[in-house]
Specification:
The complex is a heterodimer of chains A (603) and B (373). Chain A is an alpha/beta fold and 603 residues long. Chain A is 32% helix and 23% strand. Chain A contains 20 helices and 31 strands. The relative contact order of chain B is 0.20. The chains are: A alpha/beta (603), B alpha+beta (373).
Chain lengths: 603, 373
């Protein structure tokens, strides 16, 4: 279960869920408030009417859909609670009849329409020098460095507060005891303050859903004001774009991973950072990777409870990682990691070398079955937190047409970039974890380097000055990358957890099982895109984010080909769901009229 | 017979090729169907799913008859596919509409339909020009901007991805060998057959049917044929699943059996560019919202562009080679609507010794005549 920390200073907000009263705190998202109150199932799926609850808490998975004040299919994790809000379970597909007549739901006073705030809006004369997408460490550093170089910069991010997922909630933390998140979390504050002083504009609460070059050499970004009562989109023009869209947790497609109460570790961490909600008795945490240990430590420091930690790092990995150990031991990750692991082990049962996992239960998780070298065991639990590392979240760059390549050490596709973050598309840089997962310490220098390269490309200063300004950032990057090879090798997810079997769900949105995908592949589907066409996997509202890595792995294994040959989904716009009305309000053109109407107006 | 030798090789695993394979699956021929890899220009994955009659045949009355014949054969195709593959392709032919958002559009449409039906030799069927009130009785939720439109009882739609799957499954169960990742580089005719150089190795065949969409333009001359097709881009917007609200298809907007809503339109000559244009999407979306205002708040989950396979006059090309006997070419941009006639009428002709006279009009020779005139 989850519980609120006792010393939350924020005022109470009362709302209803399916008619019953729920107490939340001001600033909570609807999804966080429901989870804190013990409501883990938020919707029934449209395909099989199965109960679901939030998996990611960061706007990707669409499993937290609820109806809010009569407006259907609202992502609960993206909307703040308001007093008297009427929240209801989203039962299957939404109706459209309700949509036109329903009153707009109340939104938090603090919501600002990003497009107005940036002052670029619909004005075609407002050409940005640089548009930065994503307000994590890479985006903040990029926007700051670019603005300090005298460029006209706007940074867009779907969260209302800067910081990205890593520093989520840093400017409005609900925590009375900040120390529970650790010093690294609060280090993000200096990035945010530098950004705020830099003169770069902040498009808060704005999701960028399209990025395309225009004939005049500029780049057009379509930006949505996000989940508000009356969402709207606008086109923003920029001479250069820095994509700093961060990382996304890798899917963990084990049996039962769609049950309410099964959630990603990152989601649990967002609950802690943004709502002061912590895992308590009945919680099992399973998987591998730095974030797993960090959250376990933060949870315990905050007064939470973890019944058991099931470590899926395969036997023998440590030995294979040892050749990289020297650099790791010299890095700051070593001391920090050692302290985390030591503290967690002292206070929690840790089971090592777990090689099989299944969530048990019918309508919610009731236990976890796990295997170690063929020996099966199980534990009762009401909350199961899963994590197998993170992968670049670069759908915007991919849809824009940036080349990608397979990174075998990290088992993921990533955009191909030069040492400055320059992508294969002119004018587009990709920085931070969106280009290559290396953590916050590497993301900020990479953001800065991309900004320097862009400023140079825009004629702000010459290559010699760019290189001179880059020196301290290159040094910081080298320090941050020291030890990463060890971490990559140690925590590369075991194939058993990348390739689902049998009736295990591969695509959460469309409820497509692994065996259905394999059947399509055996029948001749030649890759992820053909499997998608035949099975609908990847066609749902998460737009393939939660199944793309799974499909690559399934195709590679089933067809006996490499991950590079298997490939991944062809990404297309919009990379975030926007309403048809938003799309309709974008500017058309005479050419578009001619293409659509096909009427000879002179006749 | 060696593993790589076939009575018939169909080049192309899209709806056209698969419909032909389905039509011939029980004819005792050893058949291979070749396809490209995971990423290719695939009209059959990008299409809209209409089984559509109204408006077709202007400039070629025989094509109007051919289209009507396919619509009439479609229930048989759907039930044969259900039996042979176990897959329901969700055929529904409740009639369908074309909607007009201004008086000018409606007048233009009415004149088009009148001219279509007035053609000498046109096999007439009923198309009604309806005002807003008459349309609203058949179509719930229409916006006030819909001035009127046209209606035909013959129109319908299906699930085109399940159609493709069903054709493939049924063909495979009957022994047709499907070969993905086998793009054809060269076809060499020789006495008694053909050798095909493919990305998956060489193949030999007694007969070859080119059903390769846009690639037909490149492949047809290798067997003494011409298929001067070019890409024409269309765009589709897919909305999230909603509860059933639209019982009939509109030619630019329909609700699928799964509950999603598709908005499809636009004809753009942009070569092989498959990227989306936001101005075009915006125009399509604006029209869709005017047609059905309640859709304004529904979310777009996906959008895509796909390339139609267009001949110079927009009509299909069907032809058998004189210089390389045993080779033929099939191309069209209505692979869903025509799937039934392709399976039941065209497929047998492609492997018969005599070319049926009623298909003569689809020869690419018609383009030479026009050029000469």
């Amino acid at each position: 279960m989850f519980a609120r920390l006792p010393d939350d200073p924020r005022p109470t907000v009362a709302f209803t869920f399916d008619g019953a009263g729920v107490d939340a705190r001001r600033g909570d998202s609807v999804a966080a408030a429901l989870v804190a109150a013990g409501h883990l199932a938020h919707r029934l799926t449209p395909v099989n009417a199965r109960p679901r609850g939030p998996w990611c808490m960061m706007g990707a998975c669409h499993d937290c859909l609820v109806s809010v004040d009569g407006v259907p299919n609202v992502q609960g994790c993206t909307v703040a609670v308001a007093p008297g809000m009427r929240v209801e379970t989203q039962r299957g597909a939404r109706a459209i009849e309700a949509a036109a007549a329903s009153p707009a739901f109340a939104v938090d006073d603090s919501v600002v329409l990003a497009l107005d705030d940036t002052g670029v809006g619909d004005r075609s004369d407002a050409l940005l020098d640089i548009a930065v997408v994503g307000a994590g460490p890479a985006g903040l550093a990029a926007a700051t460095v670019a603005a300090e170089a005298g460029l006209r910069v706007a940074l867009f991010d779907e969260q209302r507060q800067a910081g990205g997922q890593i520093h989520r909630g840093i400017t409005a933390s609900p925590l009375a005891r900040p120390a529970v998140l650790g010093a690294d979390y609060w280090a993000g504050g200096s990035l945010v303050r530098a950004f705020e002083r830099s003169g770069a504009r902040h498009g808060a609460g704005a999701s960028v859903w399209s990025l395309a070059p225009r004939d005049d050499g500029t780049l057009a970004l379509a930006v949505s004001s996000g989940p508000t009562a009356a969402p709207r989109s606008a086109l923003v023009l920029a001479r250069a774009v820095i994509v700093a869209t961060g990382a996304l947790e890798r899917p963990v497609p084990i049996p039962g991973w769609t049950l309410p109460g099964v959630m990603s570790v990152g989601a649990a961490q967002i609950l802690l950072k943004t709502a002061g909600v912590v895992a308590t008795r009945g919680t099992v945490i399973a998987g591998s990777g730095p974030l797993l240990w960090l959250y376990a430590w933060q949870c315990l420091e905050a007064g939470g409870t973890i019944d058991a930690l099931l470590d899926t790092t395969p036997r023998g990995r440590l030995a294979r990682a040892l050749p990289h150990a020297a650099a790791f031991l010299m890095s700051r990750y070593a001391a920090k990691g050692y302290e985390l692991v030591r503290t967690v082990r002292a206070r929690t049962r840790v089971v090592e070398h777990v090689d099989a996992l299944a969530a048990l239960g019918d309508d919610r998780v009731e236990g976890v079955r796990f295997g170690v070298g063929g020996a099966l065991d199980s534990l009762a639990c009401d909350t199961l937190l899963l994590h197998h590392g993170v992968v670049p979240h670069a759908t915007l760059a991919l849809a824009a047409g940036c080349d990608i390549a397979w990174n075998d050490a990290q088992a993921c596709f990533e955009p191909v970039v030069d040492p400055w973050g320059g992508s294969s598309l002119p004018g587009v840089w990709v920085a931070g974890d969106a280009a290559n997962v290396a953590g916050a310490d590497a993301a900020a220098p990479r953001g800065a380097l991309a900004a320097l390269a862009a400023a140079n490309a825009l004629g702000r200063f010459d290559a010699a000055e760019r290189d001179r300004k880059a020196r301290p950032w290159r040094a910081a990057l080298a320090r941050a990358l020291r030890g990463r090879a060890f971490i990559d090798m140690l925590y590369r997810p075991a194939d058993a957890f990348r390739v689902p079997r049998d009736a295990t769900i591969a695509c959460r949105c469309e409820e497509v099982t692994a065996e259905r995908v394999v059947q399509a592949l055996r029948a001749g589907a030649s890759g992820p895109n053909q499997a998608k066409a035949l099975t609908r996997c990847g066609m749902g509202p998460c737009q393939g984010r939660l199944c793309a890595p799974t499909l690559t792995a399934l195709v590679a294994e089933t067809c006996g080909i490499s991950a590079t040959e298997a490939g991944t989904y062809r990404q297309r716009f919009p990379v975030k769901p926007v309403t048809l009305g938003e799309l309709a309000a974008l500017p058309g053109s005479a050419a578009a009229d001619a293409a659509v109407l096909r009427i000879d107006r002179n006749r | 017979m060696a593993d790589d030798a076939f009575d018939l090789v169909i080049v192309g695993g899209g709806l056209v090729g698969a419909s032909i394979a389905f039509g011939l699956r029980e004819g005792g021929l050893r058949i291979a169907m070749l396809d490209e890899g995971d990423r290719a220009h695939r009209a059959s994955r990008g299409n809209f799913g209409l089984v559509w009659v109204q408006g077709k045949g202007a400039g070629m009355p025989a094509y109007g008859s051919w289209t009507q014949a396919s619509a009439h054969l479609w229930p048989r195709l759907a039930s044969d596919l259900a039996r042979a593959s176990g897959i329901d392709v969700a055929l529904a032919q409740p009639g369908g509409a074309h909607l007009c958002l201004s008086r000018h559009e409606l007048d233009y449409r009415a004149a088009e339909i009148e001219a279509l039906l007035a053609q000498p030799g046109f096999e007439r069927y009923r198309i009604d020009v309806l005002d807003h009130a008459a349309l609203a009785r058949r179509i719930p939720g229409l916006g006030p901007d819909v001035v009127g439109g046209t209606w035909s009882d013959l129109d319908g739609h299906c699930n085109p991805l399940r159609l493709l799957d069903a054709l493939h499954v049924a063909a495979a169960r009957a022994g047709v060998s499907y070969r993905p990742r086998a793009a054809v580089r060269v076809i060499a005719p020789h006495r008694g057959g053909f050798t095909l150089d493919t990305a998956a190795g060489p193949l030999r065949a007694r007969r070859v049917v080119l059903a390769a969409g846009l690639a037909n333009a490149r492949l047809a001359p290798m067997v003494g044929l011409r298929a001067p097709v070019v890409p024409n881009q269309g765009q589709v917007i897919a909305l999230e699943r909603v509860r059933p609200f639209l019982p009939v298809p509109i030619d630019t907007l329909r609700q699928t059996d799964e509950g999603t809503v598709l908005v499809g339109d636009a004809q753009r000559d942009v070569g092989y560019d498959e990227s989306l244009a936001t101005d075009v999407l915006a125009t399509m979306a604006a029209r869709a919202v005017r047609m059905f205002p309640a859709l304004a708040g529904v979310r777009v989950t996906r959008a895509w562009a796909a390339l139609r396979v267009m001949s110079p006059d927009g009509f299909p090309i069907y032809a058998a080679s004189r210089t390389a006997p045993g080779a033929s070419v099939v191309t069209c941009h209505s692979g869903v609507t025509l799937a039934a006639v392709h399976a039941y009428r065209l497929a047998p002709a492609l492997v018969a010794d005599a070319w049926p006279a009623d298909l003569d009009g689809y020869s690419p020779a018609r383009f030479d005549v026009r050029a000469a005139a």
